[in-house]
Amino acid sequence: MKHLFIFLPLLCLGITACSTDMNKSKQSAELVEKTNSKKPNIVLFFVDDLGFGDLGMRNPIFESPNVDALAAQSLSLENTYVASPTCSPSRATLLTGQHPAKLKMVRHLPSGIPTEPVHYWKTDPAQFPVPNWLDTKYKSYATAIKEQGYYNHFVGKWHLGHNKGFHPTDHGFDSQWGTTNEGHPKGYSGKFFKDSSMLTQPSEQALTESKSDKYLTDLLAQHSVDWINRYDKDQPFMLSLWFYNVHRPSQGKPDYVKHFEEKGLTGDMAKYAAQIKSMDDAVGQVRAALKAKGLDKDTIILFTSDQGSYFPNLPFRGKKKGETLYEGGARVPFFVHWPNVTRDGTINHSLIQTTDIFPTLVDIAGGNSTLDKNLDGISLLNVIRDNKVLERNKPIYGYRAYEDLYVSVREGDWKLLGYRSGERRLYNLGIDPLEQNNVVEHYPKIVKSMTIKLQGWEKEMGVEKYTGFPQAL
After folding, report:
1. Dist CA 53 CA 192 (whole Å)
2. How do residues 357-390 score in pLDDT, each as one tens digit?
3. Tens digits of per-residue pLDDT, 408-447?
4. How many CB atoms within 10 Å of residue 346?
5. DSSP label at 265?
6. Are 167 and 157 within 8 A, CB to CB?
7. Coil, strand or helix: which one is 365?
8. What is the number of other CB atoms lying within 10 angstroms of the CB of residue 93?
9. What CA–CA distance (Å, rounded) separates 245 from 48?
10. What is the rounded CA–CA span in Å between residue 161 and residue 169?
11. Sheet containing 405-411, strands listed edge to edge, beginning at the edge strand earlier in sequence
């Protein structure tokens, strides 16, 4: 059966600058205080390899009633893009609010415990050296909101440093559970991971069995529910549940796989649908736990994905491991539910990048993200609260280091794709969202302008030596 899709269309400089920053900080804190009488808890669901359209609300071959219900009660940011759509870079961006090009983490971390600080990719034309772990010198959102009084608990996939000293609790989280020294499981049942057990805090019950009759996503969900039920600290919390699902291997719960086979799906697609359903179950269980404890009205929920699916993300062009900087690989779902703030079923078409999530979390927590000059994103607080259009005065850039296609530039409706060979492709997403008509030869002035901006951005990020465009047109 075809993969169907229903398409819905620096230090303060002078007294004035310092005064401005102080005013912004005060306004941000007052905004959150006015919106909620106390600081809200935060739950972040971060799914692995979930395509933009791979939810029941957008494609009837899938079943995701809990996420669909969340979306119906949320603000949906329809034009959200991953800064570098692949496992480790997307996580580094989410965690630090810095573009992966600046971090030089523009490729996933390889398996195993590395002995060298960087690695190379055989087919990468630029031979870009990528770090084998995210250095703890980079401030995480966990550290940033801890400064605002939050307790941070991390559950699930990490993939930002397999070596000891680079795990979640080394990056500012107060506790962790279910993380591992591998980027994806060997299987979702039986023996989960090839060479490492799951990592926990000493105070947590360790999951050390080499085999389990439980489904991995169910275990992460049950732990999250138990953690919520046990939480008794007199401070707001943030729960970060970073799923392993729906990353391959294609392995769903047998009864779910059978269910989708009976609906007409076959092979890996039936398994993928089953994986999505299990992820959806987990979202529902966590939300039910919040409600049972009376926390649902005091908890903000964010839901997004790290990149497009392994499967074709029709009708969009591109996917994971295939023209990844096209819409199908880089565009992801993003829902924000803030009780008594966001309106049910609201759609916002602002141009968003995952660099924006860190500053948004800081401002939600009562801080002032504008004081951190290292951040590459823009706070979405006003977008979320008032459903405003986000005004960006610069393009957003996607960047990877695997193959010839390595960069994207999005400015308004225009999207420029750049190759290390020097090739450029230009699309007008306003009239061609499926990226079928390359109009690079028809708009030389736009291509030149966007290329010049790209060159400036590459220099700002410190990656100009790897550019495909050594000279402007």
Report:
1. 28
2. 999 999 999 999 999 999 999 999 999 999 999 9
3. 999 999 999 999 999 999 999 999 999 999 999 999 999 9
4. 14
5. -
6. no
7. coil
8. 28
9. 6
10. 12
11. 396-399, 405-411, 414-419, 424-428
